[in-house]
């Protein structure tokens, strides 16, 4: 069984048809064109799926980064106060309650934070644990986003290859039909 070439995440490589006449038997061009169109459709489906995943990651990454920066800020304030032997001063902040509603608050700095993990789950972490978790999540999101970008580029190349193959087979078929058709005088 021949090994099918693929990228690191398993997307198969599109074959390039060097010699169309060897690839297609006489009268088999229609079946070949249908299989090429099917492959293009599969690649485009994968592309659409990856574009949705990319959009999701791009929307989550700033939120993770912003939360990480806040936890680091709280940790630094808490450490500075501890180093001076005092309790941390309350933090005055202006935060968003909803899309159009903002409120002022005085927040006492503690050594714990609550993080939304998704699916209506919130857990309490120490500042150090929260920073480690958010750093891991941010790095994983960046890595995944980079891989998705690579996969999208790879898919664009494969779609282009299949479109070129389709055009070459179609042109070969037209040329072949003209040569085999009886000439009219």
UniProtKB/TrEMBL annotation:
<protein>
    <recommendedName>
        <fullName>Prefoldin subunit 3</fullName>
    </recommendedName>
</protein>
<keyword id="KW-0175">Coiled coil</keyword>
<comment type="similarity">
    <text>Belongs to the prefoldin subunit alpha family.</text>
</comment>
<dbReference type="InterPro" id="IPR016655">
    <property type="entry name" value="PFD3"/>
</dbReference>
<dbReference type="GO" id="GO:0007017">
    <property type="term" value="P:microtubule-based process"/>
</dbReference>
<dbReference type="GO" id="GO:0007021">
    <property type="term" value="P:tubulin complex assembly"/>
</dbReference>
<dbReference type="GO" id="GO:0005737">
    <property type="term" value="C:cytoplasm"/>
</dbReference>
<dbReference type="GO" id="GO:0015631">
    <property type="term" value="F:tubulin binding"/>
</dbReference>
<dbReference type="InterPro" id="IPR004127">
    <property type="entry name" value="Prefoldin_subunit_alpha"/>
</dbReference>
<dbReference type="GO" id="GO:0006457">
    <property type="term" value="P:protein folding"/>
</dbReference>
<comment type="subunit">
    <text>Heterohexamer of two PFD-alpha type and four PFD-beta type subunits.</text>
</comment>
<feature type="coiled-coil region">
    <location>
        <begin position="138"/>
        <end position="165"/>
    </location>
</feature>
<dbReference type="Pfam" id="PF02996">
    <property type="entry name" value="Prefoldin"/>
</dbReference>
<dbReference type="GO" id="GO:0016272">
    <property type="term" value="C:prefoldin complex"/>
</dbReference>
<dbReference type="InterPro" id="IPR009053">
    <property type="entry name" value="Prefoldin"/>
</dbReference>
<keyword id="KW-0143">Chaperone</keyword>
<comment type="function">
    <text>Binds specifically to cytosolic chaperonin (c-CPN) and transfers target proteins to it. Binds to nascent polypeptide chain and promotes folding in an environment in which there are many competing pathways for nonnative proteins.</text>
</comment>
């Amino acid at each position: 069984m021949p090994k099918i070439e693929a990228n690191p995440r398993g997307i198969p490589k599109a074959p390039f048809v060097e010699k169309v006449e060897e690839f297609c038997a006489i009268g088999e061009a229609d079946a070949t064109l249908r299989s090429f169109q099917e492959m293009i459709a599969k690649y485009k489906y994968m592309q659409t799926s990856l574009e949705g995943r990319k959009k999701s990651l791009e929307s989550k990454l700033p939120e993770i980064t912003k939360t990480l920066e806040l936890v680091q800020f709280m940790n630094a304030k808490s450490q500075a106060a501890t180093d001076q032997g005092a309790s941390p001063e309350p933090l005055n902040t202006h935060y968003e309650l909803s899309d159009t509603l903002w409120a002022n608050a005085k927040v006492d700095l503690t050594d714990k934070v609550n993080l939304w993990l998704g699916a209506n789950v919130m857990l309490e972490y120490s500042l150090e644990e929260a920073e480690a978790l958010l750093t891991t999540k941010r790095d994983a999101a960046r890595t995944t986003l980079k891989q998705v970008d690579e996969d999208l580029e790879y898919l664009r190349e494969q779609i282009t290859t299949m479109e070129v193959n389709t055009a070459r087979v179609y042109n070969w078929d037209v040329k072949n039909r003209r040569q085999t058709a009886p000439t009219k005088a």
